[in-house]
């Protein structure tokens, strides 16, 4: 198999960490970007977990796809597994995606494992905002993660209305206090 694609929906979109032959905006169906993973280290603690992104079932998600040279396939997969599968909260899947130019390809994507103890479930924007607003981990405040993610998405001209709602709820919480 010569063609190898990777789908990114979070930091992988702007910080892939590997070389690629082609980069293209892409759409995946049946999954959505969501703050659905409890962070116990980087953006929270076990006592006060934060939330980070996962690709969860339902809806669709605009992200970025990367074509990888066949000779680098194994190296990139090894890197991705080290990066994404540390706590096994994500499952590696090969899924169909549609590139912005209409091509349909399959790509490796990392979706959340709903049976994993770090799965936060489907939270509404208010619940997510309360968690994100108060959590702090080794990599800093959880809200910085959210606002940084939104800034990168805006730079890429990708709107995520749910993440924007969570950010809006955080701003409302702060005005109310």
From TrEMBL:
Keywords of this entry: Lyase
Matching InterPro entries:
ChaC (IPR006840), GGCT-like (IPR013024), GGCT-like_sf (IPR036568)
| Species assigned in the record | Rhizobium calliandrae
- Protein name as it appears in the record: glutathione-specific gamma-glutamylcyclotransferase
Q: Which domain of life is it from?
A: Bacteria
Gene3D superfamilies, A to Z: Gamma-glutamyl cyclotransferase-like (3.10.490.10)
Taking the record's annotation, the residue ranges forming a coiled coil are none
Assigned EC number = 4.3.2.7
